[in-house]
């Protein structure tokens, strides 16, 4: 470091950083809530923000909530981002993701609602999705025992899939039968 002849070294900055260093570290640790008691025995991540819903998606959501409620299940926002395997036609469609609350599987129970301009477009897209799910590229995207549910509700298509071997919650098998009371079935070739 080059200094001019009359310059004195600055030590105030060094002293200040020595004093502030522990204070900054303490403030950072306090913000982490280290040592705070957990809110519950199984921590749950916060729900993922949902986009604004159209009237068609809101009506489908109400039907899903009713059907799941009759089966003793709650409908909520997902706890993590979720996008199922899907063909390009479904990937381009607007969607909303909900989840049937499964206490033993906080990231499971995801239900996707795809929206289309008309009921006819929804039916065609749903049939295309079902056909894709039956193909090799569609089938290999899921565990072998995955049970798939596709339903058409007006201008929306509802998708739900679950694997008995991979779902730890005893209520998971109740979701698909509840969804079968909503809309019109779109059979997935087996």
Précis, in short:
With about 190 residues, the protein is an alpha+beta fold. Helix content is about 35%, strand content about 15%.
Structure description:
This protein is α+β, with helices and mostly antiparallel strands and 190 residues long. It has a domain at 73-158 and 170-185. The protein has six helices and six strands, in the order H-H-E-H-E-E-H-H-E-E-H-E. The protein has helices at residues 12-31, 55-70, 88-91, 119-134, 136-139, 175-179; strands at 75-76, 95-100, 110-115, 147-153, 156-162, 184-185. The chain has a six-stranded antiparallel sheet with strand order 1-2-3-5-4-6. The longest helix is centred in the N-terminal third of the chain and has 20 residues, at 12-31. The protein is globular, with a radius of gyration of 26 Å. The relative contact order is 0.15.
Task: Describe the secondary-structure layout.
Layout: H1 12-31, H2 55-70, E1 75-76, H3 88-91, E2 95-100, E3 110-115, H4 119-134, H5 136-139, E4 147-153, E5 156-162, H6 175-179, E6 184-185
Antiparallel strand pairs: 1-2, 2-3, 3-5, 4-5, 4-6
Strand content is: 15-25%
Structural class: alpha+beta
Low-confidence stretches: 14-42
Distance between the termini: 77 Å
Label this structure with key terms:
190 residues; alpha+beta
């Amino acid at each position: 470091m080059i200094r001019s002849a009359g310059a004195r070294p600055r030590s105030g900055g060094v002293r200040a950083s020595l004093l502030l260093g522990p204070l900054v570290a303490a403030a950072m640790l306090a913000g982490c809530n280290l040592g705070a008691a957990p809110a519950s025995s199984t921590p749950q991540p916060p729900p993922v923000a949902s986009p604004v819903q159209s009237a068609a998606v809101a009506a489908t959501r109400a039907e899903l909530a009713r059907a799941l409620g009759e089966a003793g299940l709650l409908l909520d926002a997902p706890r993590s981002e979720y996008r199922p395997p899907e063909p390009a036609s479904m990937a381009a469609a607007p969607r909303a993701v909900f989840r049937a609350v499964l206490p033993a599987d906080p990231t499971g129970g995801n239900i996707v609602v795809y929206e289309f301009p008309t009921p006819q477009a929804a039916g065609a897209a749903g049939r295309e999705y079902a056909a894709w799910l039956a193909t090799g590229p569609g089938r290999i995207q899921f565990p072998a025992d995955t049970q798939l549910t596709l339903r058409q509700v007006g201008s929306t298509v509802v998708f739900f899939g679950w694997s008995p071997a991979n779902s730890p919650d005893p209520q998971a098998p109740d979701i698909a039968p509840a969804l079968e009371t909503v809309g019109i079935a779109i059979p997935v070739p087996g």
